């Protein structure tokens, strides 16, 4: 039980850190552009990761582990940062936050396929209540009309959900921070050239908030938040811990109000309470876990 509680707490820390990602991206992309923000954060994280791996003299992952790391890199390091950076040029943070709320369902689905988890009926009911709450919220606020940027966000959610499930599964044997660290290190060399070609001299003179945002994205969103998140899923179970993500849209909207002056409605607070209750119920539901790994 203590293991599950620690997993839930680490997952919550990860979600809080992730909740600042879209607001930070929205600020940074105005000054650095999609490519530098979407791929540059990995280059920043890679510098920190390389130092840690060298100092700790970590051994290389096995071929089987390497395959899973590539999946994590595809979703968490390439797909989600790049697609959300592009989408945030066209959508408000509150809009993107609602679509990111689909992550728990996507992650739970992939957890069944890749990690052998079997959530109970009570879990799925609480999960559906949380999903329906944010969907209703989106429709009432007029987000029901999809734009092309919405499709990019939905693709980002699917890729990230897959990488979450794969990373949470692999973290049990490789270690939480090692999973995202190797994914970053593998992907970063391919990002250096496009980032360099798109970085202009004018970007050097970007305001302090833009630099703080992109550094946050590189150090926290791209690395430290994943350390907490994968640790949480490894300890508490991928499906159960992933339900904490239902809080992420409302935390994003809260941070958008604080840093971007976006409005918070009474409806947002009401829906957030419903979502919070579904998370509490889902946290205490039974999820059967298998210790075997699918390759």
Automatic annotation (TrEMBL):
Compartments, as annotated in UniProt: Endomembrane system
Residue ranges of every copy of the EamA domain listed in the record: 6-136, 148-281
InterPro entries: AA-Vitamin_Transporters (IPR050638), EamA_dom (IPR000620), EmrE-like (IPR037185)
Glycoprotein listed as a keyword: no
Transmembrane region(s): 38-56, 68-87, 93-111, 123-140, 177-197, 209-229, 250-281
One cellular component (GO) term of this entry: membrane
Topology within the bilayer: Multi-pass membrane protein
Alphabetic keyword roster: Membrane, Transmembrane, Transmembrane helix
Record bears the keyword Glycoprotein: no
Signal peptide region: none
Family statement: Belongs to the EamA transporter family.
Protein name listed in UniProt: DMT family transporter
């Amino acid at each position: 039980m203590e293991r599950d509680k620690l997993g839930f707490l680490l997952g919550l820390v990860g979600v809080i850190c992730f909740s600042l990602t879209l607001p930070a991206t929205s600020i940074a992309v105005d000054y650095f552009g999609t490519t530098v923000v979407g791929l540059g954060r990995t280059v920043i994280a890679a510098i920190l990761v390389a130092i840690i791996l060298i100092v700790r003299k970590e051994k290389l992952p096995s071929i089987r582990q390497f395959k899973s790391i590539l999946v994590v890199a595809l979703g968490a390091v390439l797909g989600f940062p790049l697609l959300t950076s592009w989408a945030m040029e066209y959508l408000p943070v509150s809009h993107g936050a609602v679509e990111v709320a689909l992550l728990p369902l996507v992650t739970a689905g992939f957890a069944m396929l890749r990690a052998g988890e079997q959530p109970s009926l009570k879990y799925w009911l609480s999960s559906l209540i949380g999903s329906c709450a944010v969907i209703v919220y989106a429709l009432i606020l007029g987000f029901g009309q999809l734009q092309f940027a919405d499709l990019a966000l939905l693709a980002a959610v699917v890729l990230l959900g897959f990488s979450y499930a794969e990373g949470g599964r692999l973290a049990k044997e490789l270690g939480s921070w090692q999973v995202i660290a190797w994914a970053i290190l593998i992907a970063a060399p391919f990002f250096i050239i496009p980032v360099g070609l798109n970085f202009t001299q004018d970007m050097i003179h970007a305001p302090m908030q833009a630099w703080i945002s992109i550094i946050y994205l590189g150090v926290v969103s791209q690395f430290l938040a994943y350390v907490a998140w994968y640790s949480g899923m490894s300890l508490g179970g991928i499906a159960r811990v992933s339900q904490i993500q239902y809080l992420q849209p409302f935390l994003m909207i809260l941070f958008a109000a604080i840093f971007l002056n976006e409005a918070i409605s009474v409806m947002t607070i009401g829906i957030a309470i419903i979502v919070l209750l579904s998370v509490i119920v889902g946290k205490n539901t039974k999820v059967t876990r298998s210790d075997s790994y699918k390759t």
